[in-house]
Amino acid sequence: MTLPVLQSTVGLFDGPGAAFVFLLARVLFGGVLAFMGLNHFTGGEEMAGYAGVKGVPAPDLLVPLSGGTLVFGGLSVALGVYPLLGSGALAVFLLVTTPVMHDFWAVGEEQRQQETINFLKNAALLGAALVFLVLSGVAWPLSLGVGV
């Protein structure tokens, strides 16, 4: 038995309200990640200290760089501007940072629940970033439509 494979994206957004729901998903996903990126700048000193405790090399450099990645990627997905680059950047960010920053298996019992929650949240966000990455090859409705 073989599973059905999506052969075409024709009509992907033709359902009632599909374009609006896709826009809402993009704005929620991208907006939250862009906001998280802004926090890398407004609370950068504290975040760099935490990243240093987690063993991140050059946290004073990497925290703003990762913040810029989140802002760019989040706005890219929300607006539909360079969605391949934006969703790809978000996927790479989440893939790399999640096990480093939320290593629930390596922390004490008092931190384990919070780190587990953050790890699982980031895993779900990674899944969403991968969906947007796959869909970046088709025209997004209600977007600025700029891409590579």
3D architecture notes:
It holds the Pfam family DoxX. It is a multi-pass membrane protein. This is DoxX family protein. By secondary structure, the chain is mostly helical. It has one domain (18-135). It contains five helices and no strands. α1 packs across α2, α1 (18-42) runs antiparallel to α3 and α2 (44-53) packs across α3. The model has no long low-confidence stretch (mean pLDDT 93).
Summarize this entry quickly:
This protein is an all-alpha fold. The chain has helices at residues 18-42, 44-53, 59-79, 83-101, 109-135. The protein has one domain (18-135).
List descriptors.
148 residues, mainly alpha, 5 helices
Mean pLDDT: 93
Integer count of domains: 1
Largest sheet: none
Tertiary shape: elongated
Considering DSSP H and I runs of 4 or more, what fraction of the residues is helical?
55-70%
What's the structural blueprint in terms of helices and strands?
Blueprint: H1 18-42, H2 44-53, H3 59-79, H4 83-101, H5 109-135
Helix pairs in contact: 1-2, 1-3, 2-3, 3-4, 4-5
